[in-house]
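Continued from yesterday's entry.
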Amino acid sequence: MKVILDIKDAKAPFVMELLQSFSFVKAKPLSPYKAKVLEDVKEAVEEMKLIKAGKLRARNAEDLFNEL
């Protein structure tokens, strides 16, 4: 199982030390870039779920390309 934790910077060293003290846990921090990419993907998935449920209107692909 993989778990992502959002920990305050001041408490991160303590939590990392605690997690690494367990032989059955592999813990490594994400880079800020990877954390941002992961958050963006999560938001995109949530947005797609809302669009499929009819709670959010999809954008035109041309508008999306123009935004890029």
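--- second protein ---
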Amino acid sequence: MFPYPSAEGLHVGNLYAFTGNDIYGRFQRMQGHEVFEPLGYDAFGIHSENYALKVGVHPTVLIPRNIANFRRQLDRTGLMVDWRYSVDTTDPRYYKWTQWVFLQLLRRGLAYKKQAAVNCVRSTRPCWPTSR
């Protein structure tokens, strides 16, 4: 799971998601195993666009600034992240391939749009199928 750098900084939910994995990774490392713990940022999408509109800063300026702040905050948490393998979904080297894979699936009829039920067991918000 990559955090959304669509606000000014991390929130407790980000740390909640990463801390358990980090603890387990440290345990595995102490057992003599090699541990690979990359991290990145899911910076595309409506969350980032809405925040950019809210603060009046273009996403191409805002997102790199938010990513730098997230990185600074994540470094301070002490997580054993291997930053050499960081992912940023706004990097053309990343989304070039996700878009290519999607187009291959679409051309073969494996990507499609339809109504479907949504599993909402752990959600606090109402859920229903959408037609998007």
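The longest strand covers residues 40-41. The mean pLDDT is 85. Will compare against the first tomorrow.
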